[in-house]
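Q:
Just now I want nothing more than another pair of eyes on a protein record. Here is the record:
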Amino acid sequence: MQEGHSVYLNFFISWFPILLVLIVWLIPLIVIGKSKRVGRKEKAIWLFATFFVSWASFMLYLIIAPVMQNDD
Protein backbone atom coordinates (compact mmCIF):
# COMPACT_ATOMS: atom_id res chain seq x y z
CA MET A 1 0.00 0.00 0.00
CA GLN A 2 2.84 2.38 0.75
CA GLU A 3 4.35 1.87 -2.69
CA GLY A 4 1.17 3.16 -4.37
CA HIS A 5 1.28 6.33 -2.31
CA SER A 6 4.95 6.88 -3.02
CA VAL A 7 4.30 6.68 -6.78
CA TYR A 8 1.70 9.46 -6.56
CA LEU A 9 3.90 11.49 -4.25
CA ASN A 10 6.90 11.15 -6.56
CA PHE A 11 4.74 12.14 -9.55
CA PHE A 12 3.45 15.22 -7.69
CA ILE A 13 6.91 16.23 -6.48
CA SER A 14 8.42 15.87 -9.95
CA TRP A 15 5.69 17.79 -11.83
CA PHE A 16 4.73 20.45 -9.26
CA PRO A 17 7.73 22.76 -9.93
CA ILE A 18 7.11 22.62 -13.67
CA LEU A 19 3.41 23.41 -13.25
CA LEU A 20 4.21 26.21 -10.82
CA VAL A 21 6.65 27.83 -13.25
CA LEU A 22 4.13 27.50 -16.08
CA ILE A 23 1.37 29.14 -14.03
CA VAL A 24 3.64 31.97 -12.89
CA TRP A 25 4.76 32.50 -16.50
CA LEU A 26 1.14 32.62 -17.76
CA ILE A 27 -0.23 35.08 -15.17
CA PRO A 28 1.13 38.23 -16.92
CA LEU A 29 -0.16 37.02 -20.29
CA ILE A 30 -3.65 36.51 -18.89
CA VAL A 31 -3.69 39.86 -17.06
CA ILE A 32 -2.56 41.79 -20.14
CA GLY A 33 -4.87 39.82 -22.43
CA LYS A 34 -7.93 40.70 -20.34
CA SER A 35 -6.91 44.32 -19.68
CA LYS A 36 -8.91 47.22 -21.07
CA ARG A 37 -6.12 49.76 -20.39
CA VAL A 38 -4.69 49.57 -23.90
CA GLY A 39 -5.89 49.09 -27.46
CA ARG A 40 -5.54 45.98 -29.61
CA LYS A 41 -2.26 46.91 -31.31
CA GLU A 42 -0.52 47.95 -28.12
CA LYS A 43 -1.90 44.89 -26.31
CA ALA A 44 -0.40 42.67 -29.02
CA ILE A 45 2.98 44.37 -28.55
CA TRP A 46 2.83 43.97 -24.77
CA LEU A 47 1.79 40.32 -25.08
CA PHE A 48 4.63 39.63 -27.51
CA ALA A 49 7.16 41.28 -25.17
CA THR A 50 5.76 39.51 -22.12
CA PHE A 51 5.82 36.15 -23.89
CA PHE A 52 9.61 36.43 -24.26
CA VAL A 53 10.62 38.56 -21.25
CA SER A 54 7.79 37.62 -18.89
CA TRP A 55 7.90 39.53 -15.63
CA ALA A 56 10.19 42.40 -16.68
CA SER A 57 7.87 43.54 -19.46
CA PHE A 58 4.82 42.88 -17.26
CA MET A 59 6.19 45.29 -14.65
CA LEU A 60 6.81 47.87 -17.37
CA TYR A 61 3.24 47.33 -18.61
CA LEU A 62 1.84 47.99 -15.14
CA ILE A 63 3.94 51.15 -14.78
CA ILE A 64 3.74 52.85 -18.18
CA ALA A 65 0.79 51.44 -20.19
CA PRO A 66 -0.89 52.88 -22.19
CA VAL A 67 1.89 54.25 -24.35
CA MET A 68 -0.08 54.69 -27.58
CA GLN A 69 -3.49 56.24 -28.15
CA ASN A 70 -6.29 53.69 -27.81
CA ASP A 71 -7.27 52.20 -31.20
CA ASP A 72 -10.58 50.62 -30.13
Summary: Helices lie at 2-34, 40-52, 54-64. The two ends are 60 Å apart (CA to CA).
